[in-house]
Every structure is written in C-alpha cells, then in structure tokens.
Amino acid sequence: DRDMTQLVLAPPQELLDEDEMRISGVVSKEVTIVLRPGLYYADGPIILRHPGAQLVLQAGVHIVFASFASIRVDLGTLKVLGDDGFPVKLTPTDGFTEEFGDTSVENTTVWSGI
After folding, report:
1. Phi/psi of residue 21, each to 5°?
2. Element (H, E) at 99
3. CA atoms of 37 and 44, how far apart (whole Å)
4. By the 8 A CB rule, do 21 and 39 touch?
5. What is the end-to-end Cα distance of the chain in Å, rounded?
6. Residue 76 confidence class, pLDDT cut points 50, 70, 90
7. SS3 of 20, please?
8. How many CA atoms lie within 13 A of 112 on its CB side?
9. Distance from C-alpha of 60 to C-alpha of 54, rounded to nearest angstrom
10. Which of 46, 39, 34 is nearest to 20 (CA)?
C-alpha cells in the first residue's frame, strides 16, 4: 500500500510543538527535550530511539494521551521529576481512569531504554 509505505518511511517529525502544547514523534538523535509545567496533548506515539535521547518531564507536567498514543523508550532516557506537591500526570482521554484508577506518577522516576 503506497500510503502505508510513505507513513513508514517518513522522516522523524519534531517531537514538541510548544505553541500548540502537543507532543508526539520519534527522537532519533542525541537531544534533551524538557517539558515545562503545563498541560500537553499527545496526539500520537512518543518514541525515544537514540542512546543520547532524553525526555524530561518536570514537576507539574500533565500529558493527556489520545487513545492510540503512548511513550516508548527503545534507546535513551525518560526522566519523570514529579513530587508529592507537584506530580507529573500521564492520563488518557475519555473514561480510562474510571476503569483503571489514578494514573499519575507521584515520585521521581528515571527509565533508560534497553
């Protein structure tokens, strides 16, 4: 399918649109992306795919995920820097928390990909 080929072979897009507060895409180079406190919308997958790629979620970040969106760390580091007074929240859209409960991240977490 030609459309699928274009999708798969498309170059990585910019991960963060600060004007629109949207985040999605692939990080395939050495870069550190820091999300400042605020509400963001993940309208697609967030993928770290380089050993030097870092995504830092500062305390007070809240990301709402579209139903098909996710964070995946193939290579690189995800740092979640929430605390008791100012957590990082990763929440889905529409009704997920009613079924699965609170999804906020309450402590500092660092995840390095394999």
Report:
1. 55, 40
2. helix 96-100
3. 20
4. yes
5. 32
6. very high
7. coil
8. 3
9. 18
10. 39
- Residue 8 pLDDT class (50, 70, 90 cuts): very low
> In this structure, are residues 49 and 75 in contact, taking their beta carbons and an 8 Å threshold?
yes
What are the structure tokens assigned to 114, written together? 């394999």
Residue corresponding to tokens 């993940």: 42
Cα gap 51→30, rounded to integer Å = 7
- Cβ-based burial of 44 (10 A; exposed 0-12, middle 13-18, buried ≥19): middle
Instruction: Tokens for 2, please give them.
Output: 């030609």
Side chain identity at residue 7, one-letter code: L
- Indicate the residue type of 56: V
